[in-house]
User: Which sequence fits this backbone?
């Protein structure tokens, strides 16, 4: 660093301003920009939102065809990289078409805007069918589950009815979903709602989760009754059980009973095997082989014959010559 006309910059020259937290105005501008983007663009396909439009449990909006394309297997023309990117956007909220609700906006007109590159982008404008107020960034809008009709939040609060103002479908306050919520209270309420629905075996659209049928629940309840001992017993089954010949029970002094075998059939079989083995051992000790027994003689068997050890036990014929 010398003799070449260069210079070494200092930190004061490089860092003109110290790091600081964004102001409220800057945060509001950033939030408005994000709201405008999500109100007009599908985050999955990066295309303008157009009917039909669906929403998941978080209140975000998507094009229905983009969601259907995401739900297709990865080998059906959908690149794996795009599918993985869409999974990060959805954050596991959409696993089937039952996890979304089609939002029914009242479209008043379509506007065209020229984007960078000369592409013409058509954007739909939606209004509240009650207050005739335009729905979009800066307006708190909601839709109802399961019908999906969209209104402004102020109109739903003022009317205070329990049926949809468009189709008369009943709903509760829990099923009023804010569109693109920004308040932490709304985000927390939606998270608690979907967790309670999952525990009840329901999806965001209030449809049953695939695989959770009444038959499965009936089997679980039956197993619980059997475990608790509250399941009723049919008298006919009891009579059949009594009429069948019962397996002989082992005696209290048997080896099986001392071993702690509770099953009656198993205990009796074990006792029988042990008794047979004991009897075989007894016979083996008392009863000797005939060939082996012939080699020995008991002291009580007749009188001993005279002779030496060479002729003992051998009889000389009477007519033999000596």
Assistant:
């Amino acid at each position: 660093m010398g003799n070449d006309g260069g210079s070494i910059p200092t930190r004061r020259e490089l860092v003109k301003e110290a790091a600081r937290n964004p102001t409220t105005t800057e945060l509001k501008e950033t939030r408005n920009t994000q709201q405008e983007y999500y109100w007009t663009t599908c985050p999955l396909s990066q295309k303008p939102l157009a009917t039909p439009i669906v929403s998941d449990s978080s209140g975000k909006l998507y094009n229905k065809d983009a969601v259907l394309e995401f739900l297709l297997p990865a080998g059906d023309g959908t690149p794996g990289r795009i599918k993985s990117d869409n999974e990060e956007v959805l954050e596991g909220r959409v696993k089937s078409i039952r996890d979304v609700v089609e939002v029914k906006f009242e479209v008043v007109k379509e506007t065209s805007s020229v984007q960078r590159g000369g592409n013409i982008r058509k954007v739909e404008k939606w209004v509240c069918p009650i207050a005739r107020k335009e729905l979009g960034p800066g307006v708190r809008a909601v839709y109802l589950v399961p019908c999906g009709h969209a209104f402004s939040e102020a109109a739903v609060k003022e009317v205070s009815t329990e049926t949809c103002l468009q189709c008369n479908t009943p709903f509760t306050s829990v099923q009023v979903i804010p569109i693109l919520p920004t308040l932490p209270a709304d985000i927390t309420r939606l998270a608690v709602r979907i967790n309670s629905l999952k525990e009840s075996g329901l999806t965001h659209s209030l449809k049953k989760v695939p695989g959770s049928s009444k038959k499965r629940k009936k089997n679980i309840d039956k197993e619980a009754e059997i475990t608790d001992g509250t399941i009723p017993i049919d008298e006919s089954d009891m009579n059949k059980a009594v009429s069948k010949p019962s397996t002989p029970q082992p005696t209290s002094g048997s080896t099986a009973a001392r071993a702690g075998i509770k099953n009656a059939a198993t205990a009796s079989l074990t006792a029988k095997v042990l008794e047979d083995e004991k009897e075989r051992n007894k016979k083996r000790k008392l009863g000797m082989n005939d060939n082996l027994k012939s080699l020995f003689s008991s002291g009580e068997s007749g009188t001993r014959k005279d002779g030496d050890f060479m002729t003992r036990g051998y009889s000389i014929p009477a007519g033999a010559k000596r």
